[in-house]
């Protein structure tokens, strides 16, 4: 069915004809800026009708009405961005994936439940596993984790279906994701990261991290957040590594973010602090944060008596030195005879084959070694997590989201 557009008599924007009256009235309501943004975002991101090859250009109204001198150039920029979004929405390809019958998370839930009443687990509602392929081996893990988070957002979040990837309602392949990141940079998201990559990443094998993940999702109006866990004494300074005379790829930016440096020589502060104490404290802080994130324990809504609970929270993009994975949940084993409770992160690794994960979960044999990770495996001095809060950002929030910063948790 072909969509019909009409011109708003107030702002001269093109809107859906059946929503024209609502759009005009919204200009005279107290929260007009927020609602105009949401409507404009939906219209701009909506895929074109397959029966109509004519692209309707929609100008999203972001400008401050007190800055009329900049209106002309801003309008031209938005027009170009909308044209690129419309074009990419048409040509982007759906990522190839081996889809597990019944869903991978459902198989995991069954295995977790069968571990017995001494275990309490909480997992994300739905996640597809995107594995590294020969074409992206050695550099594609970050993109694969973005795809895993996207599969959850498209299935579990209503707003995700509306705005992600032009409203296509599917997870694009890596080349398309690279183009979406370039568009985010062009729109002013993560200027520091854009500068580092010279605003070009499409067709390359550059490593990415949490900042690029956040930039993509924020450019669609989603509230992506980054949390930094750091045991080093480098503060908020940035580091670049060298290895065999070449620049080492670094993928974390922002006022608080630090580069994840690969192959860097020793910069050991163990002479001032016990590395064992720091490592133990770091594991405790990280695991405690992840447990509270998935359980929402601050609100008192989590029932610890349940063996397996489905969380409304998105999975976590989990970044550390040299690799990234996706945390889909966490498990607690009750302590015996006064011993402390034990925790296990539930992780999907892009390096694993999806068929291997499926087989081990169906047979309930070998899956723990692929998915469960205890605190003793967390030996890195720095970790970063990226997650997405519910809702669509307002126009004012969108401007704030263009700067990619993080919450720093030191230990």
Q: What is the share of helical residues?
A: 25-40%
The total of beta strands comes to 13
Shape: globular
Low-confidence parts = 27-67, 235-272
What is the percentage of strand-forming residues? 15-25%
Residue-averaged pLDDT, rounded? 79
Q: Determine the N-to-C terminus distance.
A: 57 Å
Kindly list the characteristics that best describe this protein.
single chain, 9-stranded mixed beta sheet, 13 strands, alpha+beta, 411 residues
Explain how this protein is built.
The chain is 36% helix and 17% strand. It has 13 helices and 13 strands. The strands form three sheets. Strands 3, 4, 7, 8, 9, 10, 11, 12 and 13 form a nine-stranded mixed β-sheet that branches. The protein has a two-stranded antiparallel sheet with strand order 1-2. The protein has a two-stranded antiparallel ribbon with strand order 5-6. Helix 3 runs antiparallel to helix 7 (174-186), helix 4 runs parallel beside helix 11 (354-363) and helix 7 (174-186) packs across helix 9. The model is unreliable at 27-67 and 235-272 (pLDDT under 50).
SSE topology sketch:
Layout: E1 5-7, E2 14-16, H1 20-26, H2 32-45, H3 71-91, H4 104-113, E3 119-124, H5 141-156, H6 158-163, H7 174-186, H8 191-196, H9 210-219, E4 222-230, E5 242-243, E6 246-247, H10 275-295, E7 308-311, E8 316-320, E9 323-333, E10 342-348, H11 354-363, H12 367-371, E11 372-373, E12 382-392, H13 395-401, E13 407-410
Parallel strand pairs: 3-7, 4-13
Antiparallel strand pairs: 1-2, 3-9, 4-12, 5-6, 8-9, 8-12, 9-10, 10-11
């Amino acid at each position: 069915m072909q969509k019909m557009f009409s011109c708003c008599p107030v702002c001269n924007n093109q809107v859906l004809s059946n929503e024209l009256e609502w759009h005009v009235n919204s200009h005279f309501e107290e929260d007009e800026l927020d609602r105009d943004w949401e409507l404009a975002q939906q219209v701009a991101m909506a895929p074109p009708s397959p029966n109509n090859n004519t692209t309707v250009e929609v100008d999203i109204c972001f400008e401050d009405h007190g800055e009329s001198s900049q209106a002309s150039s801003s309008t031209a920029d938005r027009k170009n961005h909308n044209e690129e979004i419309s074009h990419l929405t048409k040509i982007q390809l759906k990522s190839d994936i081996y889809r597990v019958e019944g869903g991978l998370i459902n198989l995991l839930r069954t295995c977790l439940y069968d571990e017995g009443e001494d275990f309490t687990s909480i997992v994300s509602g739905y996640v597809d596993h995107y594995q590294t392929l020969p074409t992206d081996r050695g550099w594609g893990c970050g993109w694969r984790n973005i795809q895993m988070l996207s599969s959850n957002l498209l299935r579990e979040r209503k707003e995700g279906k509306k705005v992600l990837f032009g409203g296509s309602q599917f997870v694009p392949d890596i080349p398309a994701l690279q183009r979406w990141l370039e568009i985010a940079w062009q729109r002013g998201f993560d200027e520091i990261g854009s500068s580092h990559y010279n605003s070009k990443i499409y067709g390359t094998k550059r490593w990415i991290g949490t900042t690029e993940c956040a930039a993509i999702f924020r450019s669609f109006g989603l509230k992506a957040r980054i949390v930094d866990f750091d045991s080093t004494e480098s503060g908020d300074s940035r580091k670049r590594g060298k290895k065999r005379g070449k620049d080492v790829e670094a993928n974390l930016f922002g006022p608080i973010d630090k580069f994840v440096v690969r192959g860097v020589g020793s910069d050991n502060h163990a002479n001032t602090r016990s590395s064992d104490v720091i490592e133990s404290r770091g594991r405790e802080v990280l695991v405690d944060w992840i447990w509270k994130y998935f359980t929402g324990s601050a609100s008192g809504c989590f029932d610890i008596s349940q063996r397996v609970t489905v969380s409304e929270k998105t999975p976590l993009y989990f970044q550390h030195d040299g690799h990234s994975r996706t945390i889909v949940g966490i498990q607690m084993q009750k302590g015996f005879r006064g011993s402390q409770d034990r925790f296990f992160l539930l992780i999907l690794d892009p390096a694993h084959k999806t068929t291997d994960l499926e087989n081990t979960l169906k047979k309930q044999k070998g899956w723990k070694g692929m998915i469960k990770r205890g605190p003793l495996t967390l030996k890195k001095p720095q970790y970063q997590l990226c997650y997405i809060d519910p809702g669509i950002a307002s126009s004012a929030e969108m401007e704030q989201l263009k700067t990619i910063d993080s919450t720093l948790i030191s230990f």
